[in-house]
Amino acid sequence: MVFEYAPAPESRALATIASSYGLFIDGNFVDPIDGSQFKTVNPATEEVLSEISQAGPADVDRAVVAARRAYEQVWGPMTGRERAKYLFRIARIIQERSRELAVLETLDNGKPIRESRDVDLPLVAAHFFYHAGWADKLEYAGLGSAPRPLGVAAQVIPWNFPLLMLAWKIAPALACGNTVVLKPAETTPLTALAFAEICQQAELPAGVVNIITGDGSTGRALVEHSGIDKVAFTGSTDVGKAIQRAVAGTSKRLTLELGGKAANIVFDDAPIDQAVEGIVNGIFFNQGHVCCAGSRLLLQESVADSVIEALKRRLCTLRLGDPMDKNTDIGAINSAEQWSRIDALVRSGEDEGAERWSMPCQIPERGWWFPPTLFTSVTQAHRIAREEIFGPVLSVLTFRTPDEAIEKANNTPYGLSAGIWTEKGSRILWMANRLRAGVVWANTFNRFDPASPFGGFKESGFGREGGRQGLAAYLERAS
Questions:
Q1: For residue 76, how many other CB atoms are within 10 A of its CB?
Q2: pLDDT of 1
Q3: Order of strands, edge to edge, in the sheet holding 37-42?
Q4: What's the CA gap between 146 and 140, in Å, rounded?
């Protein structure tokens, strides 16, 4: 039986979007010095949402100076107990404004409102609550009896989880006593600017958080600024390498969370229906715009056909369409540029002989959309098995033995995450010890908690975010 659902759109009236936004520097919104702006667009409709300020080098300098002053005069000398009060206040305001923020995130990013509302926003608030609890307990974090903040942190975040990545960066930095200059992605600045308003609402001291919008040149100027003590970046491996070159030879501390090409490994004793749900969540959540997405599916040969058949049946039940509709499973691709990259890699898979299957669905006339797609007859040599696609595209490979599964899973320059599906606990532990991945999920995928550290190996970056380990990136051990 096929169930048809009437449209259930969330109200756009919950979110107020200004016609234009300035830069948030030293506690206030200010115009950029050269006055230049760019547009942010709804990827589902191509509607212009607002005009956003483009920060130049002089604006970056203003923000860094404000952050330095706040660090030296206010935030750095403040006790952890007092800092915690501000973080708790921010967390509560985020909860109070969660529906508004979820709508804003979906409009600017293209992800389904169900994901913004039920996944992103609860985790955003949880990160601020969690790190607020650490603010007066840093001496118990295992980093010495009197760890010290680093100073001013430059933070550059991506467009796939705009507000959640902001929380991952800002919450631990503030809890540890640092001040922040953050640059959101140019295609998704609206929730970061809403967060600036939350900082005002929470009466956070001026200059503790500064948010400057702009393109890659803004991020470059921020990373290279001499007044920065710490750089934190989440994004592509290529940009991460450029940042590492830029800070080489300086005293700046650096953490990088970069690309991934995770293996989701299914053994013949795994519960098929449960594994299929994990596969779908692993690669098609957030349209595959997830650095730790399970984009390589490794199936044991004896169950490969049955898993693929069950997976196709499940994909045919997904709903692609209006991200503001609460029934939608698959939203819009974030930008035309990202759509073109996905399309080019999918075409390369077809050209190299892999067999493509895409979910049958109607594509909206406007916006950027890509149906959930899987490839079979894939080899390790295919580009789709080697390169990060960052879209709703799954490459299926097979294996016979656990050793072969390990060999194929680790045969990648990345090392961010992996998944294991089996009923044998001993096999899970055996596999986890051999997988070269920062996060290994067992009989689940894409599960996150602010108390659990997240990060990768190899070209997936270094350093950890979340948990006690994530605090180390923003603290100096006492000598």
A1: 18
A2: 57
A3: 20-21, 47-53, 37-42
A4: 9
> Which residues, in sequence order, are CB contacts of 164 under 8 Å at separation 6+?
120, 123, 124, 127
What is the distance between the alpha carbons of residues 395 and 398, in angstroms, rounded to a whole number?
10
- Strand-pair partners of 320: 330
Active-site residue flag, 291 = yes
Q: Is 34 helix (H, G, I), strand (E, B) or coil?
A: coil
- Could you tell me how far CA 197 lies from the centroid of its own chain? 22
Query: 478: exposed, middle or buried (C-beta count within 10 Å: 0-12, 13-18, 19+)?
Result: exposed
- For residues 393 and 346, the answer to whether their CB atoms sit within 8 Å is yes
Please give the average per-residue pLDDT across 119-142, as a whole number.
97
Q: How many H helices and E strands in the chain?
A: 16, 22
Tokens 């030293």 sit at which residue? Answer: 26
> What pLDDT, on a 0 to 100 scale, did the predictor assign at position 4?
77
| Tens digits of residue pLDDT in 287-302 | 999 999 999 999 999 9
- Taking CA atoms, 460 is separated from 248, 298, 385, in Å, by 18, 20, 16
Residues paired with residue 153 on neighbouring β-strands, in sequence order? 180, 230
DSSP secondary structure letter of residue 226: T
Other CB atoms within 10 A of residue 60 CB: 29
| pLDDT > 90: percent of the chain | 97
Q: Which of 115, 186, 257, 465 is catalytic?
A: 257
Q: How many CA atoms lie within 13 A of 92 on its CB side?
A: 8
Helix, strand, coil content of the chain in percent (nearest 5): 40, 20, 40
Is pTM, for the whole model, over 0.90?
A: yes
Check 291, 292, 388, 459 and give the catalytic one. 291
Strand partners, 299: 266, 398
**How far is residue 169 from each of residues 70, 150, 217, 334, 402, measured CA to CA in Å?**
18, 14, 20, 22, 37
- Note if 257 is an active site residue: yes
